[in-house]
Amino acid sequence: MANVDVVLIGGGIMSATLGTLIKQLQPDWTIEVYERLGEVAQESSNPWNNAGTGHAALCELNYMPEAKDGTVTAAKAVAINEQFQISRQLWAHLVETGVLPAPTKFINSTPHMTFVHGQSSVEYLRKRFAVLKGEPLFQGMEYSEDPAVIGTWTPLLTQKRPKNQKIAATRIVSGTDVDFGALTRYLLDNLKAEGVGVHMNQQVTGLKQLTDGMWKLNLRRLVGNHPSIVKARFVFVGAGGGALALLQQSGIPEIEGFGGFPISGQFLRTTNPKLVAQHHAKVYGKAATGAPPMSVPHLDTRVVEGETSLLFGPYAGFTPKFLKSSSWLDLPFSIRAHNIGPMLSVAAHNFGLMKYLIGEVFASKKTKLKALQEFIPTAKIEDWELITAGQRVQVMKKDPEQGGVLQFGTEVITSADGTIAGLLGASPGASTAAPIMVDLIQRCFPEQYPAWEPKLREMIPSLGTKLSDDPAAAAASLAATAAVLNLTA
């Protein structure tokens, strides 16, 4: 039975980020990574299972909802942007130190835009811009209601659009497109080169804490069906939709009351050179009534393995599977006595969401085309192919007022003794992997953290501060990371 310091379950961006941080901070620790599929980054981190948006709240309206009194506040958008700056700083440091290769292999400058139509939506976007234009991390944002101007930003939005339709858009050129699959592979390749074991086709079938505080993991090699056991001082469950079941299996009381609500999705994709040449941006719109935040429609430039394409969607749907390559019984098997109450409460309070998802499941090709034509009036379905996106398992948890709530975002679960942690939830997920993992390190390794903090500050200069409170520091950080990552400042 092998004894190691750290076991990372799942070969995605979260495990890759945490493993990289720990190896930088404590090089002598032994680390093992176990992935049940034959390759890493094949679920949510795969570039075709997500939109690759470097989520910095530059264009996503769900981070700035309009209140009942009509006001719009920037607090959440600023917080999300602050988190993304931590990721940018870490990536820049890893490029400078040779851990990551040339940045164009995983990140590219792509303007972020928001596009709306209709009088009420235009008035909302105008208010949003007024709030954000003075924020240090949103400097350079432009606003226009002029179709001629918007057409120069991206022609596909305005070609043959009704002249009497009221439209508006914002643009900020410092946005990014990130290939999280490539980033994950580069990080894990570097870890392998430094002696970390990265094991494919290995599924964790048992997870139990021993009396000495160590964790015993039962493993099964899916090729050949060979069992094995490993003991670890610390375990991170970064298995995406598979994390809930493993955390439940661990028996830690902190997971009680948590459930998962899976949402599937599809995108339309085109590589038509004529279309691709006319659009260089990630353009987000407003979500349909009842739609979950991750179903906000958007038209994205994607760069994957050097090839540029356009992606539109997502078209939401429902399946009880928690991963693309898992079981249809995932949802029913996740039900426990401690979470059935919150789950039933969520179902009772989210009838509109269920109705929306069912409608999306049965949406015709004509309906999908109509949604695309809201962005590209000249769109023809024969130019686009339908692809299936990754599963997003949203967090359901106890709530003292409603009994249970559906939470959009991510949630880190840690045991009281800090020996095991796991990540539940979805977007902004990958974009904020660095700050999420730094927070996890601080929570799970309080004894080591003071000695690690100087190194962390070397990697992430703004750690512990708010760039949004200091315009000069914000501008300097954005310029510095842009220079290293070859991005538009």
Automatic annotation (TrEMBL):
EC number assigned by the record: 1.1.5.4
InterPro entries: FAD/NAD-bd_sf (IPR036188), MQO (IPR006231)
Gene3D superfamilies (UniProt xref): D-Amino Acid Oxidase, subunit A, domain 2, FAD/NAD(P)-binding domain
Pfam family, one: Mqo
Enzyme class label: oxidoreductase
MF term (GO), any: L-malate dehydrogenase (quinone) activity
Catalytic activity: (S)-malate + a quinone = a quinol + oxaloacetate
Keywords noted in UniProt: FAD, Flavoprotein, Oxidoreductase, Tricarboxylic acid cycle
SUPFAM superfamilies per UniProt: FAD/NAD(P)-binding domain
DNA-binding keyword on record: no
HAMAP family attached to this UniProt entry: MQO (MF_00212)
Matches recorded under NCBIfam families: mal_quin_oxido, PRK05257.1-1, PRK05257.1-4, PRK05257.2-1, PRK05257.3-1, PRK05257.3-2, PRK13339.1
Protein name per the record: Probable malate:quinone oxidoreductase
Classification lineage: Bacteria, Bacillati, Actinomycetota, Actinomycetes, Micrococcales
